[in-house]
Amino acid sequence: MKRRDFLGVSAAAAAGVLLSGREAQAASFVHAAPPDLTTMDVRELAEAMASGRTTSRAVTRAFLKRIAEIDPKINSMIEINPDAPAIADALDRERKAGKVRGPLHGIPVVIKDNIDTADRMRTTAGSLALMDAPTPKEDAFIVKRLREAGAVLLGKTNLSEWANFRDNDSISGWSGRGGQTRNPYILDRNPCGSSSGTGAAVAADLATLGIGTETDGSIVCPSSICGLVGLKPTVGLVSRHGIIPIAASQDTAGPMTRTVADAAALLTAIRGFDAADGSMRQGDPAMTADYMSVLRIDGLKGARIGVARDYWGRRSDVDKVLDEALEAMKRSGAELVDVSFPNLRKFGEAEFEVLQYEFKAGLEQYLQGRGAKFKTIDDLIRFNDENKDRELKYFGQTIFESSAKKGPLTDSKYVESLATCRKYARDEGIDAAVKANRLDAIVAPSNAPTWMIDTVNGDCGSGYVGSSSMPAVAGYPNITVPAGYVKELPVGVSFFGTAWSEPVLLRLAYAFEQATKARRRPRFLTTYAA
Fold this sequence. Notes:
This protein has helices spanning about 15-25, 40-50, 55-75, 85-95, 140-150, 160-165, 195-205, 220-225, 260-270, 315-330, 350-370, 375-385, 390, 400-405, 410-435, 470-475, 500-515, and strands spanning about 75-80, 110, 150-155, 175, 180, 210-215, 230, 250-255, 305-310, 335-340, 440-445, 480-485, 490-495. By secondary structure, it is α/β, with parallel strands linked by helices. The protein has one domain (about 5-515): Amidase signature (AS) domain (Amidase signature (AS) enzymes).
């Protein structure tokens, strides 16, 4: 499986030190909170705190205790925020004084370790090369938004190193700093990349909410494979300022949660105009929208939905889950229309070309602005070669090496490749299908059952089905919702559409979720037996 299919406080050698630190933090909270706190959604926790039945401190304490007990087997957290208890205490004092910032006030959230925080945590993209880099000068824009909303930043999650853009034969969910994250549904299975830690942590009830980032599939894949709701927004709705980049034309952060309502609440908190991100449009209503207000149980009634049949016929077990999902949509009042995308395979090479060009330009700009010791991809390549026993023990850095050879973004090869991507993914892809068939959205399977963790062959992904690429390349929104299971492994359904269609997609996804109630919690710590 190639990287373009999934772009997804320690290295593995130091894992024992990190785990003992987690346990020490959790041990400082001797009195365990009620066990159901870690399974409550945003609304339930907000109501419990508003009524005085619990506090943000108690909720934070419960999650830290659960992380200490559960995460040693899953390895989803790369670092715990030492300030989390103090943040919770401060928010409890605000609530007691009559100040409530909104629905996320006092709610724990985890973020991916490629998102800057100007605090006592590191930001490394999972690479040992950035372990000693200066602390970012300021929080990423979305971190500022989370703090303003009253969220408790619980910690950072592991990821596929450099957001799964280092080598064609990588292992999703592995980083030199954090080691291998495991799928909480079946521990010898991959959690998918690159937002693997966020997906595994939220699925295992180690935080109420999670933030991932996506270039192509890195929110949708780990969310669907870990039985979550994952929302990749339209590029330009959520600021990328302060996020270690891959590609400016496709990168975005987004929610990874257990429910659609939680995803809507989190998107409302992090969206907003940021002048530092050139993709954003000041004054656009999407920047101030309340995405929670669009959720309706009858949201599928009268909807006209395109069924992307190009993704059927590859695996009968996935087809069965998705056919049942389509029946549920019809029972809820949706009209289904089969659609096809004849140009679906015409932009893959162009996408990879674009990503390599933009990766070199964006990453080197970030490194220089960060003041890191290593300022170019060539510097990182040399570091990895010099530390091959820790960084290159499972796979190489072919994408780093090919990206380092790319020229400026004025090169004709880049310009032509970007035009090809937009033509086939947008103009003659999603936009054409929606317009010709008068669609509200398009549905497709988000994933097939996940593959085994394989340190010899990397991401095999035999028979894998995924539909993230077209909306990712277009820069359009995509939301995955749990649809069912194949041998205890989650399968999701994706709703995607044209630019800025998040309100419609959330409405449809919420109605589907409420009609099916397909998600079930992982049984944890199991090993697959065929």
